Amino acid sequence: MIPAPLLSTLIAVIETGSFDLAAARLGVTPPAISQRMRALAETAGGAVFARLQPAEPTALGRRLLRHARDVATLEAELAGDLGQDAGPRPVSIALNADSLEVWAVPALAACPDFRFDVRVIDQDHSAGLLRRGEVSAALTAEAAALPGCDVTSLGALRYRATCTPALFARHFADGVTARALSRAPTLRFTALDGLQMRWMARQTGQAVDPPAHLIPAPGPFVQATREGLGWGLNPDSLVQEDIAAGRLVELVPGTHLDTPLFWQVNRTMAPALAAVTRALRQAARHTLVRPA
């Protein structure tokens, strides 16, 4: 067992970014913080921080941080059951950027008893954080429950392949073919973003590798589409008005791509995070679609 003061100190160091600020938060001296973090590293058997200015955890440190927040959340839940006020419950979760942009933030806002540390990562890769114990829950593309987790199907986020009329005329005047797609510039969120590749494979039956711009933020991604930097898969709700106004066109009308999303929660934490699960389910019902 790791002593509770070491865990609470780890949370303070990560959230404030420094030993000095953590000391001020906890009402102790900076040397006491250093001593506690050395003790934590010795107990855990490895380095907790990759660097200290600002404090950045190692993989082991992230795993310990998730554990520390889980313990704090469970203790806060118990305090609530006993009629005591333990403050917000810290929790680490993983969400994909488009869900944050389109529908998930109101769900988080509906859970004022929690303090969220959101790891932004593609839904195809978020399960890895849950498997490694770095987060307590994650939005994933995996329908099967991960080991030790409960899974809830939320629906699918609908995407449409769009571009400006000028880009369409320049690159697709003779049709949206594999040859044309291989030459037209596309947009990708990050190197991990496989939406465009899946859409092209579905349309052409081939693996197409076009030149790509990496735009790792949903708002700028849509703006880059509007400005004609390239074509890309955008959430339907973010481009409906642009399509209706003629600012954007679908590469192939009616060929939306639905991305199913599943909320996976560490089973130990599921009761404590039940309010978050309910809020996400409710928000998803208003925005997500049934998978095609």
Please name the CATH topology of the domain at 157-258.
D-Maltodextrin-Binding Protein, domain 2
For the record, give the distance between the C-alpha atoms at the N and C termini, rounded to a whole number.
47 Å
Based on secondary structure, the structural category is: alpha/beta
Order of helices and strands: HHHEEHEHEHEEHHEHEHEHEEH
Rounded average pLDDT? 91
CATH architectural arrangement of the domain at 157-258: 3-Layer(aba) Sandwich
CATH class of the domain at 157-258: Alpha Beta
As residue ranges, the low-confidence spans are none
Report strand %.
Answer: 15-25%
| Biggest sheet layout | 7 strands, mixed
Work out the radius of gyration.
Answer: 22 Å
Helix content: 40-55%
Topology:
Layout: H1 4-16, H2 19-26, H3 30-44, E1 49-52, E2 55-57, H4 59-81, E3 89-95, H5 97-109, E4 114-120, H6 126-131, E5 137-140, E6 149-163, H7 165-171, H8 178-183, E7 186-188, H9 195-204, E8 212-214, H10 218-226, E9 232-235, H11 236-245, E10 249-250, E11 257-266, H12 274-287
Parallel strand pairs: 3-4, 3-5, 7-8
Antiparallel strand pairs: 1-2, 5-11, 6-9, 6-10, 6-11
Helix pairs in contact: 1-2, 1-3, 1-4, 2-3, 5-12
